Amino acid sequence: MSDHTRISDMSRQDRELLCHLDELDLKPLPDDLSAGRQGPALTQLNAQITERCECGLDGACGLNLARPKSLQEEEKLVASFLSGLEKLFTKENNWTFLQPLLLSIEHCTRCQTCSDACHIFESSGRKEIYRPTFRAEILRRLYFKYVKHGGLLSAWQHGDIELNWPLVARLAELAYRCNLCRRCAQACPIGVDNGLIAHELRKLFSQEMGISPKELHDKGSMLQLKTGSTTGMNAAAVRDSMDFVDEEMSEKTGLGIHTPWDVEGADVLLIHNAGEILAWPENPGAFSTILNAAGVKWTLSSELAGYDAVNYGLWYDDAQFARVALKQLEVARSLGVKKIVIGECGHAHKALGVIADRIAIGALDIPRESSMTLLRDIVQSGKLRLDPARNDFPITLHDPCNMVRLMGVVEPQREILRKIAPRFREMEPHGVDNYCCGGGSGFAIMSSNNFSDWRSQVSGRKKLEQVMEAFSDCLDPATPKYVCAPCSNCKGQLRDLLSYWDIWEKHRILYGGLVELIVNAMTEVKPGFIDWQWR
Amino acid sequence: MTLITAIAIYAGLGFFFAGSVWRVVQYSRMPVHLRWELYPVPGEGAKQAAHGGSYFEESDWWKHSRHAHPFNELKVMLGEIFLLRGIWKFNRGLWWLSYPFHTGLYLLITGCFLSVLGVSTARYPIAPALYLAARICAWSGLSLTLVGSVGLFLRRVFDKSLRSYTVPCDLINVGGFALISALILSATLTGAMPPFKDTVFGLLTLQSGLRLPLLLNFGLILGSAMTGYIPFTHMAHYIAKYFTYHCVRWDDARRTESMEIRIAQCLGYHPTWSAAHLGGEAKRSWKEIATTNPVGTERPPK
Predict the structure, then answer these.
(1) ipTM of this predicted complex?
(2) Residues whose CB falls within 8 Å of the CB of residue B66, separated by 6 or more in sequence, listed in order
(3) Closest CA to A238 of A303, A289, A333, A287
């Protein structure tokens, strides 16, 4: 279906969707996975949701943004948006990203070079609303009209736009149709960053209007600041859970696994994504196995936020980001550890390793390191006896955007795989050019209404295509295959994606972390650490 | 008329330099921002830059001294400026139009520079060679600019993905370059031109006796207006690009003492964000907000 959506359509007062996602419009998948599928690509929202929430964008509803009950309420919300828009461009309110934001707003030539770099735009069958410049152009026009107070001349120079509640509501939802993977920014010859613009829009909605997905805010950063973890686990619960993991791992590996807690002066404070402990306990268990076997003096922390590396503020709110990052650094300072090592969590790498760098001043300047480098050093040191033959199955590597394109940790995980995985093959493209899993920027944990459909049908589609092509020579289910994703959110997305498309049943493709493969290769561990069972 | 043209040239250049300086000052004075780099970062050095890696790949990276590799950055920058490598890699169709357009402008700038040099060295034997080189640059520059700008104009009109985002000003900008190039080229081809060196000398020294074809006068006046207008538009990406690359995309600089002072200033700002979890209305500084837990902390039982 041809797509003639225009920027002015965002202000349309009717309740018709701007974009209809139909199976036949989406990019076909390899191995005829999508053959024969037709009709709406997403589960239709029920009448109760459409009556209650603003869902006028594309038929998906991730924000659950309540409809205003009166014209006065609409006007109030638009005024609030306008107030936030002005604040976004002042140093007092947005010193954190003002320079990159203004550069991106003022210098885009709208050449559309970025469009083909976007997996969402490509996978959707090039739906206009997903073009990286679409939402950026809206913010640009609003900026010149309402912040710079441009008149007719400005409209002629930068384009006009009508600000009303339907536009604000659609824009809020549209801010959550970008994975913030910044592949588009990589392609821009001028250096304009449309990913950043989506990020800044999210901040405007959260910091001024209190609008954000509940999974990121109420059940995310707020819960983490209250209990210590976005999982809701407090210190007692996390220790109980890890005790259970230790027992399981001891039985599974044949080694006595003991996870140390709150060891003052340890060389390494390891911070996991706490979701791993509940969803994939073999991952923290494998870390414990490796670090103990390598003789590392390490510890976990049971202090608030010290046992959960996640920092959802990275995706939508500077204040929440800073609060969580500072708490994590404070935990490390009070324990007197030599360094923090970030577990297999991509966005925690970026948040604590890179972005927090400029707020970790004074005593909070605790060195932070990726677990990829520590694991690489351990594997290369010979401290572990490793038998690559135990990993003699096809393995491909997914590159978490936050760890790779946005932090430059590219090779350590590959050095490990080359040593322990004889049938390792790259997906294409890979490294800093790889595509997002489709769950980036919080999507992996967002599942309101039909949002997980959208993730599997649209944002994750390119990753599925890459995985299928990487294993195109061995798709037969008789051969088990492994997608190594050293990131908790990416694993969550892969789990949902592979499950949605029934890939485990059809092709025996499993996903998992990197440490599981290392332990699977350790000769002192009972063979068969990796369970070839869907989870 | 020609005197007006000469004054317009000086005015255009004046606006261009003043506008460019204003842009540089505008972006330079902005507060330090949080890190937002994007890999590959060429300043990382050949080993890491080859695969897009960073110093974070080294264990205990903070213990090692960092060596910047400005030559690698320069190599990438020159390729980007003079060959438009980014567009070549990601948008080949556009490169065939954008490359002649930009190269045309570079040649025109070189031609102007050589002309001024020719006037300055008029007494020396090198002057005729400089004038000849300037003429070659100016002619080839105008031709390439004309080809490129007409191509870009047509692409904006006929390519659906560009047309939807094109505003009238875009067409006037790119059409303006085409018109100016066409006017000057046709004037020099069809009009009675004084010798090149006399033209340059006369314009530079505001000679009232200089007579130029009408079309050339129009072309030069329009060209001067365009030159003065560029810094105030998105076409100022010759400046923006320095900042987007060096201060954002490639900025992997570790914190320094002077940076800490600037950050401390920013942490002292009082934001006015209104959402409940921020407290709002300038009551607290960024530092106070960042160190305040917005929820009643449930002290974790040990």
Answers:
(1) 0.95
(2) B55, B254
(3) A303
**Mean pLDDT of the residues in chain A:** 96
Quote the DSSP letter at residue A113.
Answer: T
DSSP summary character for residue A499:
H
Residues of A in contact with B39 (CB under 8 A): 404-408, 410, 432
Q: For chain B, say whether A117 makes contact (Cβ under 8 Å).
A: yes
The residue count for chain A: 535
Closest CB to A182: pick one of B35, B38, B235.
B38
What's the per-residue H, E or C state across A372-412?
Answer: HHHHHHHHHHCCCCECHHHHCCCEEECCCCCCCCCCCCCCH
| Start-end of H helices in B214-273 | 214-229, 237-242, 257-267
The DSSP symbol for B243 reads I
Residue where a domain stops, chosen among A354, A376, A398: A376
Smallest Cβ distance to A225: which of B36, B37, B293? B293
Q: Where are the alpha helices (DSSP H) in A254-409?
A: 275-279, 282-293, 313-316, 318-335, 346-348, 371-381
Tell me the pLDDT tens digit for each residue of B286-302: 999 999 999 865 444 44
Burial class (CB in 10 A: 0-12, 13-18, 19+), A4: exposed
Per-domain residue ranges of chain B: 2-30+84-235, 268-302
3-state secondary structure of A509: strand
Query: Is some CB atom of chain B closer than 8 A to the CB atom of A364?
Result: no
Contact A337, A269 (CB under 8 A): yes
Q: Which of B51, B248, B291 sits opposite A326 (nearest CB)?
A: B291
Q: Does B274 touch chain A (CB under 8 A)?
A: yes
Counting residues of chain A whose pLDDT is more than 90, the rounded percentage is 95
Domain count, chain A: 3
Measure the CA–CA gap between A495 and A439, rounded to whole angstroms. Answer: 10
Q: What is the pLDDT of residue A143?
A: 98
Residue A91 to residue B296, Cβ atoms within 8 A: no
Considering the domain architecture, whether residues A390 and A360 belong to the same structural domain is answered as no
Angle in degrees, CA B214, B219, B223, rounded to 5: 150
Q: Do A50 and A183 fall into the same domain?
A: yes
Is the pLDDT assigned to residue A430 strictly greater than 70? Answer: yes
Residue in A84, A159, A376 closest to B167 by CB? A159
A70-107 pLDDT per residue, tens: 999 999 999 999 999 999 999 999 999 999 999 999 99
Give the integer Cα–Cα distance in Å for A13 and A509: 46
For A39-106, give the DSSP string. SBSSPPPPHHHHHHB---SSS--SS-PBPPSSHHHHHHHHHHHHHHHHHHTSHHHHTTTHHHHHHHHH
Verify whether the Cβ–Cβ distance B291 to A408 is below 8 Å: no
Q: Is residue A531 part of a domain?
A: no
CB distance A76 to A37 below 8 Å: no
User: What percentage of chain A's residues is helix, strand, coil (to nearest 5)?
Assistant: 50, 5, 40
Task: Please say whether the beta carbons of A229 and B300 come within 8 A.
Answer: no
B31 DSSP assignment = P
Average pLDDT, chain B: 92
A222 within 8 A of B286, measured Cβ to Cβ = no
Is B237 in CB contact (< 8 Å) with chain A? yes
* A194–B contact, CB cutoff 8 A: no
- Amino acid identity, position A83: S
- The class that CATH gives domain B2-30+84-235 is mainly alpha
Rg of the Cα atoms in chain B = 26
| Domain encompassing residue A107 | 7-209
Q: Is the peptide bond before A284 cis (omega within 30 degrees of 0)?
A: no
In sequence order, the 6+-apart residues with CB closer than 8 A to the CB of A327 are: A225, A304, A305, A306
The b-or-e profile of A460-475 (16+ CB within 10 A means b, else e) is: bbbbbbbbbebbeebb
Report how far residue A497's alpha carbon sits from residue A461's, in angstroms, rounded to the nearest whole number. 8
